[in-house]
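User: Some background: our group keeps a shared notebook of sequences we're curious about, and every so often someone picks one and asks for a predicted structure to add to the entry. Today it's my turn. The entry only has the sequence so far, pasted here. Could you supply the structure so I can complete it?
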Amino acid sequence: MAKTKFKKSRASSVDDEQIPVEALPLDPVKVPRRTDTGMVLDAEGYGGQVASALIVNGLRAYLSVVNKGVNAVACNRAHTAFVPVQIAPCTAGLDIKRDDAKPLVEAHGVLAFLLDDGEGWTSYYIPVSEYLEMAEDRGESGLRLDIDEHATWLEKYEGHAGVKRAFAKLLG
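Assistant: Of course. Here's the predicted structure to add to the notebook entry:
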């Protein structure tokens, strides 16, 4: 095999210099299209969030979306017992209008409150009869249950433990 000699390239002295690079034209920015929610009444997903919690805890859930909000019907796996659920999103306290709560009393309904605390959602599942006993009547603005004032009482109705407690009759 013959030996090959490498010659020093004159370009190696240019390596230290920076060669200007032309900027390429940028592609136009595509604005993301928002999903058309004109035909979806539960666009915020409150009903889906409550239904998921019910299903995870062993119940069946059926959403009833109406113009005034989202309601659900929870039932046992055998479809022999049903409980109406009123879903209410909240920011400061557990608020609901008196007219929304009254029809649920006779049916032993449950109020599902979704509280946005800034870091995520906290959910409370309270039987309507117990809520009416504890809530403060605020006149025309409806009923309110102050979270800080009733924090220890509300612990038993929070999250999965609240689902199991409020829907104990359906879970057997």
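Suggested note for the entry: DSSP finds six helices and eight strands in the chain. The beta strands are 60-66, 69-75, 82-90, 94-96, 110-116, 121-127, 136-137, 143-145.
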